[in-house]
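Incident log, structure service

09:12 report received: a user says their structure output differs between two submissions of the same chain.
09:20 pulled the input from the user's history:
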Amino acid sequence: MSADAPAPNAADLRERIDTTKAHPARVYDVFLGGKDNYPADREAAAMALAANPRGYLTVRHNRDFMRRAVTLAAKDGIRQFLDVGTGLPTQQNVHQIAQAIAPDARVLYVDNDPVVLVHAQALLTSGPEGRTEYIEADLRDPAKILEAARRTLDLERPVALVLAAVLHFIEDDAAYPIVKQLLDALAPGSFLVLSNVSSDLNPEQVGQITKSFKERGFAMVRRSHAQVERFVTDNGLEMLDPGVVPVHRWRPERVVDLPEAADPDPEFVAGLDELDRTRYQGINDVTDADVSVYGVVARKR
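09:34 re-ran on a clean worker, output below:
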């Protein structure tokens, strides 16, 4: 974080953190084997895995897709990244990937969970040549995001807009205008990195999961191949090969060994009576139904 980033007020954050309701960022953390989650988040994760025991592969392969896409953007000359729906820090984060390629890269992280705020300020530390900032904002408020982005990034130069596994928390009548507003503010040559839970891959099991998540306080909008493609075509972007595909099929030759590719926390697995630990094997032995998330990368002309 930069020196002028505001320090979180611990009392205020404690007041605002509702540990009785699951939050997408913390459920995501459960699937990645993290520790920054609460019983409600673990309950939601357990419910999802009961409906689809290999569903944890969705999170892990989505994360790997994001890393490959950011690597591509950085190698293509992008030096600015706007990551909306950051989630809790893990390895490797956007700034670590980008600054390993271009030490002067600038990254602005955006999320709306106060738990993420605390960890972001503690862990998302930029290299000396670059800059890493974090703001608390909701994707439903693109004007606020862009206002903050202008303080950290130069929007007259290309930016990689990262919307990985976040748009499925935005209803259809809002999602497309939000993405358009963000992209309209970015310079030609900017990238869009996007992934969304699918409605046409493993629809029965994923439908059960989204229904249960909605009952726990957060809706998840599944989208078809055509609906995901709209985020590209509606904005006149150049879609990069291989187009809209399940995330594990997006340039898989770029897959790297990841620290979280191991089994999830054994204590967590042991606590799920309905699951067999052997179901967690084979992160790279997956089907489209296992992953059930579409990914796409596109460039603004």
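09:41 both user submissions now match this output. Likely a transient worker issue. Closing.
09:42 reviewer note: The beta strands are 80-84, 106-111, 131-136, 160-164, 191-197, 238-239, 245-246, 293-299. The first strand starts at residue 80 and ends at 84.
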